[in-house]
């Protein structure tokens, strides 16, 4: 029971984060783990909406392989304001011993006149009553741009204390350029600088690079970074996280996310891969598959394609299932296009002899479909 309740609450946090991404029309998210040679279901989230398409309930299930069935573990009921923004959720976990729903957590939200969230308050269910455990407060400037987020919690004596603070720097259009995190030191009653996230955007105002530095010995030290890659429609197709190794000054692969999008740009599937430093290859870890309650055209933008050889020193040969002409672009690890979109015949190899050695992203398009894959230039 306790294990499931904790997992349910974790999934609930994921649910709240993803609501903003999918604009309240995702109906389910299926989670699967990679178990060579295939994918095995593990968890599932379901989203229920009212006639106004406002979220009313979220359900969390786990896959019981023995029974070949989904087990309902937790749920959350939502109350929304007239604009569809949540004002409260109550999360409950299923107690299999008593076959009843048990309160677990409650979240309440407040908003300013512009509809932006001012506060989020978390309550835990404790001996029959709701107990406030955490408060998050947002502050905005005169333009309505977020400038600080303050997190507070309660100590054992029941006193409200500072926990974390994030300060945002925005450009003239309100786009976040940098976020600096601080932790509250109870001993000195001062804010201690922790980390800094800096965002770089492409010409289409999409994040192309996210870097994270930590404050050490009165200086910023690089920790990790994420490179983002987009297709010709400016839909996110991949991001790669690397971490900095101070000993040799190199960036080391850590995690990769590959996205498959629907024809309207919504995310259909995200596959998570982790870098195996022993074999120097990316390995599948798990994936998420989204279903929507209303998506229009629901055909994934994906091509079935094979490239060879990989690695290559001179040419890439593309084998498409329909052998029709295609358009190709090549992007380097820094997100810069090194080969602009060019049309190729299905039998024409792509000349990469002039490219420096390294890892590249090959972006292919054909009749509204797309596919992105990495290759290594020797």
Question: Termini distance?
Answer: 53 Å
Question: Strand fraction band?
Answer: over 45%
Q: Uncertain segments of ≥5 residues (pLDDT<50)?
A: 1-15, 17-24
Helix content: under 10%
Q: Quick one: overall form?
A: globular
Order of helices and strands: HEEEEEEEEEEEEEEEEEEEEEEEEE
What does this structure look like?
The structure is a single chain. By secondary structure, this protein is mostly beta strands. It folds into 2 domains: 2-300, Porin (Beta Barrel), CATH 2.40.160; 303-378, Immunoglobulin-like. Helix content is 6%, strand content 64%. The protein has one helix at 2-22; strands spanning 26-35, 38-49, 55-64, 69-80, 86-95, 100-111, 117-126, 129-140, 146-154, 160-170, 176-185, 190-201, 207-216, 219-230, 236-245, 250-261, 267-276, 281-292, 305-308, 315-320, 326-332, 337-344, 350-351, 358-366, 369-377. The strands form 3 sheets. The chain has an 18-stranded antiparallel β-barrel. Strands 22-21-24-25 form a 4-stranded antiparallel β-sheet, with no helix packed on it. It has a 3-stranded antiparallel β-sheet with strand order 19-20-23, with no helix packed on it. The longest helix is centred in the first third of the chain and has 21 residues, at 2-22. It is globular. It starts with a helix and ends with a strand.
């Amino acid at each position: 029971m306790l294990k499931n309740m904790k997992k349910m609450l974790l999934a609930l946090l994921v649910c709240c984060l993803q609501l903003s991404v999918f604009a309240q029309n995702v109906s389910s998210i299926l989670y699967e783990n990679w178990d060579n040679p295939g994918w095995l279901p593990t968890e599932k989230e379901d989203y229920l909406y009212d006639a106004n398409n406002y979220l009313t309930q979220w359900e969390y299930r786990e896959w019981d392989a023995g029974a070949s069935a989904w087990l309902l573990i937790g749920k959350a009921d939502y109350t929304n304001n007239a604009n569809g923004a949540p004002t409260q959720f109550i999360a409950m976990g299923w107690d299999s011993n008593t076959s009843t729903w048990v309160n677990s957590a409650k979240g309440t939200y407040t908003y300013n006149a512009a509809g932006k969230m001012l506060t989020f308050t978390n309550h835990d269910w404790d001996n029959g009553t709701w107990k406030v455990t955490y408060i998050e407060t947002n502050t905005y400037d005169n333009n309505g741009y977020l400038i600080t987020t303050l997190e507070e919690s309660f100590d054992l004596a029941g006193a409200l204390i500072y926990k974390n603070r994030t300060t945002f720097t925005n450009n003239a259009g309100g786009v976040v350029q940098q976020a600096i995190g601080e932790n509250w030191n109870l001993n000195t009653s001062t804010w201690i600088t922790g980390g800094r996230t800096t965002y770089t955007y492409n010409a289409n105002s999409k994040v192309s690079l996210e870097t994270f530095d930590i404050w050490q010995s009165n200086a910023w030290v690089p920790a990790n970074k994420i490179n983002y890659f987009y297709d010709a429609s400016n839909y996110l197709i991949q991001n790669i996280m690397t971490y900095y190794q101070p000993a040799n000054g190199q960036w080391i692969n850590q995690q990769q996310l590959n996205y498959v999008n629907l024809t309207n740009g919504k995310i259909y599937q995200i596959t998570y891969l982790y870098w195996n430093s022993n074999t120097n290859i990316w390995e599948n870890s798990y994936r998420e598959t989204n279903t929507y309650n209303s998506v229009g055209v629901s055909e994934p933008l994906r091509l079935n394609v094979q490239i060879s050889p990989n690695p290559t020193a001179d040419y890439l040969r593309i084998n498409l299932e329909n052998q029709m002409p295609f358009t190709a672009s090549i992007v380097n690890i820094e997100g810069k296009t090194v080969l602009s979109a060019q049309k190729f015949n299905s039998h024409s190899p792509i000349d990469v002899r002039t490219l420096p050695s390294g890892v590249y992203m090959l972006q292919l398009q054909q009749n509204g479909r797309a596919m992105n894959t990495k290759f290594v230039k020797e």
